[in-house]
Structure formats: C-alpha cells, structure tokens
Structure to design on (315 residues):
C-alpha cells in the first residue's frame, strides 16, 4: 500500500547544487564532466514536465532561520524560475512576531496551535509579516539574482476571509479564507516576477484584517492559481509510521488512505492540519502536494527536479 524510502543518495544535494551552478553559469564543483552531464540529463524531463507550470512553496521553520538553509531555499527558488517554472512563495514569521511582542511586553498566546490575535497582536502580525519578513525575503531573492516582488493578502483583494468560529473557541482576529483573487499573482508571473506573499487577509465580515495560517493560505493560493505542486517545508522528514524513527518515512499517501492513518494515530498533532491542507488542495485540483523537510539543503530541487523524491507526497 505504501512505499517507504529509507534514504536518498548522499551525493544528491551536491549534484543538484551543481545543477544550479551550471544553469546560472557559475563555476563547477568537484564533479567530473560525466557527473555534471548526468545532473542535467536527470533534471531535463522534469524541467520539460513543469515548464510553464506553477509550484507554490510554503516557506517557514528552520529553513527560514538558518542562514545556510535559507541560501539553499533561495537558490532552489531562483533555479526553478530560471528554467521556466512559476514559483509562488508563501511565508510565515512566527519567531519574528514572538520577538516583537516580547519587546513590547506582550505575551504570545496560542489556542489549539493557532496564535490568539487581539488587536494589538494583529498590529504586530501585520507589521512583521507584511513589512520586515516579507521585504527581507524579497531583498534576499533579488540579491541572489532573482526577480521577486513582495505582496500581502490585502493587495488587490488577494485574500479575503471571515473571523474563525469553531465550537465556541475564541481565536481573536484569526481568519478563515473565503476567497482568493489570483490576479495580482498572475500579473506578477506575466512580468517575470516571483511573488512572495504574507498571509494577512481582508475581512469581509468586519472592517479589519485577519491573521491567517500560512499552510492554509498556501493551499488556497495553490488551488486559485491552478498549481501543479504545493510544497510545505517543515522541520520533520515527512509523515512517519514511527515518529521516533525517520527510516519509517511514508513517501506516498493517497487521499483514500488518510482517514485510516488518522485513525491509527500515524497522522496526529501538528501533522493533522498540514495533511488537511494537502487534502484540500488535491481535492480542488492541485496535482501533487509534498510535505518536505526544510532542514535538508536543496530539498525543493531534490523533490522537483530529480528521481529521488523525498518527504511525503499526498495525492
């Protein structure tokens, strides 16, 4: 029923990094000519398959904090764009929000895994996500040779939502997305830009902005733009049969298998909302969704442009 991949070739990240260097005309690493050719041969059918298609990447976790991992993600995104793949980057910014709230003497509070967002916290969320984090990420992409443009869900009425109402639980100004207008994203594609999106939504039930979960927003955006792939970067290898044993990685899960895995407790805790986002995306037209370990350098390239898919694919 499931196919478990125990490991991928240790050489793979180096080979794919070399592919990035080759495409960008940079110097070769320590690979011989045959190895370099093999990189391109392996990548070619995937480049052909995804040329002109859209990949939505939810960027967060350690991949957003570690400078080494950040450079790897940035180079992956730029390479995908250089070979003709449209990339949308949807980002969070939890640590930065926590830092700003701490500086202002405001305690971070979470309800069922979501940040309780009162008006003061919403101001911090909007300031950090739409400002500092978004613009720093755009600048990093541009400095590395990409062409990125920063957007937030308020721009062009991209993300609209209502206040979350769930079994009488009060989340404050946390929103559920009710509508995605992809025009501003499509305009960015036409102009050759990589759209980088922060997840603040315009309220339709009140004159306010809402804090929206980045995984959920990425899934909704992927559906709206007709994405071929949705990639959620996380701090775990993917879905594990045994959460303490990374060799039990489940590499592929069909939608029909999800309820059984939930019942067995294999999909549990923080993995439940991520899987739910993937299920929602696939049910609404996204061809493949992937939960990837953002702690692995170049995990995006390994998944998209090679035979050695990693993480968990839900389809």
């Amino acid at each position: 029923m499931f196919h478990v991949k125990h490991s991928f070739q240790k050489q793979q990240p180096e080979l794919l990094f070399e592919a990035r260097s080759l495409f960008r005309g940079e110097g070769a690493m320590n690979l011989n000519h045959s190895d370099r050719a093999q990189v391109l041969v392996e990548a070619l059918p995937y480049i052909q398959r995804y040329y002109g298609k859209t990949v939505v990447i939810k960027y967060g976790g350690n991949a957003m904090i570690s400078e080494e991992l950040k450079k790897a993600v940035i180079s992956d995104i730029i390479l995908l764009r250089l070979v003709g793949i449209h990339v949308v980057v949807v980002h969070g910014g939890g640590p930065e929000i926590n830092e700003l709230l701490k500086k202002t003497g405001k305690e971070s509070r979470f309800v069922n895994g979501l940040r309780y967002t009162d008006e003061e916290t919403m101001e911090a969320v909007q300031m950090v996500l739409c400002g500092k984090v978004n613009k720093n990420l755009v600048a990093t992409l541009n400095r590395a040779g990409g062409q990125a443009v920063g957007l937030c869900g308020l721009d062009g009425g991209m993300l609209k939502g209502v206040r979350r109402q769930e079994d009488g639980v009060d989340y404050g100004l946390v929103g559920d997305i009710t509508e995605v207008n992809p025009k501003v994203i499509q305009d960015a594609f036409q102009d050759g830009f990589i759209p980088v999106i922060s997840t603040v939504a315009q309220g339709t039930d009140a004159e306010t902005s809402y804090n929206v979960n980045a995984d959920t927003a990425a899934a909704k955006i992927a559906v709206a733009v007709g994405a071929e792939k949705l990639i959620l970067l996380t701090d775990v290898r993917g879905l594990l049969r045994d959460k303490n044993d990374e060799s039990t990685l489940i590499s592929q899960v069909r939608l029909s298998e999800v309820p059984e895995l939930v019942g067995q407790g294999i999909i549990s805790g923080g993995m439940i909302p991520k899987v739910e986002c993937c299920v929602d995306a696939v049910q609404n037209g996204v061809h493949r969704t992937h939960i990837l370990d953002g702690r692995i350098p170049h995990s995006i390239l390994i998944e998209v442009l090679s035979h050695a898919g990693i993480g968990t694919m839900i389809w």
Observations:
- Residues 119-143 form the longest helix (25 residues).
- The radius of gyration is 19 Å.
- The chain has eleven helices and 14 strands.
- Residues 1-16, 22-28 have pLDDT under 50 and may be disordered.
